[in-house]
Amino acid sequence: MNAGNEKIIRKRLGTFLDQNNITIIADTHGDLEELSFRQYDTSGQLNEVASMVYDTNTGLTIGDWDSINTNNGIASVDEILKPMKGLLEQTKGDFYRNELFEPVHKASDMVESKHKFRDTLKDSLVRKIGETGLYVVDGDFTKKPVDSIITVINSNRILCNENDKAIKEVAGENYHIQVDSCMPLDNKGAILTRGNRVMHDGQFNDAIFLINNLYISVSNLIYRGLESSIIGDYQTVAIPANIWGIPTEKVEEYSEIVVAGIVDGVNKFTFEFSGRTNLRNIVFVTNQTPLMKEYLQKGLMNISYSS
């Protein structure tokens, strides 16, 4: 198996686990270890969809394919077990330390993170408009398991804001390279970049970059970002409440102005698109900015839109 094929196989395997909400639970018996692949259903229950036993010294799987458990209609032999068999044999059973399995471990952890995040959203719902929930949560916006993040980038690409730095810290230049390929940016409203969270240290897949030329209001930026989420056909997006990427120590100073723009942009979007989008969760993320969180919760609660 050459390096190119290895990367494709581990990325494909990790992506399959992530997209199908399948996590891995291991049970060791001496030199043998059983890997149980379990899928979260809509009620949050775990159901085994596949399992395999391998020798931790050689990586060789025990038993024949006919005896492998394949439940729930998941194409587990082709999509999970065969690539796992090849990787285990190549790494001599080094499932926990070998970097080849990093996307697999990342995907398994991501499934657990997504499950916990659903509970977080239940406790963080501020307002529901039609089928779309508006949420305010704390933390790092790059560490939320969402379909896409929405952020602002300067049209000249010379200045790097705090949100740019956060994205590069977890994903390197992968997303910004796609932005640079669209230069010049002055006449671009938004750029949708594609990614895969099993291949970087963040928890988002795609990123929508809103082009800021200093003449566009926060309201129009938010509206444009949410409108772009329809093109991406996303169900859950995360937006840093500090949408401009202002240094943290100055955020509170601009909180009221920024939040007023955010609320107006959300109001315009829901007025036009409520009932005509698959977007179910708009998650605003505050980070060490209690005043902004307070303003945001009050503002979203009082949105004037009515269906």
Concise account of the structure shown:
With 307 residues, the chain is α/β, with parallel strands linked by helices.
Can you offer a commentary on this structure?
There is one protein chain. This protein is α/β, with parallel strands linked by helices and 307 residues long. The protein folds into two domains: 111 residues, no CATH class; 172 residues, Leucine Aminopeptidase, subunit E, domain 1. The chain is built from eight helices and eleven strands. Strand 10, helix 7 and strand 11 form a beta-alpha-beta unit. Helix 1 packs parallel to helix 3, helix 6 crosses helix 7 and helix 7 runs parallel beside helix 8. The longest helix has 26 residues. The radius of gyration is 22 Å and the shape is elongated.
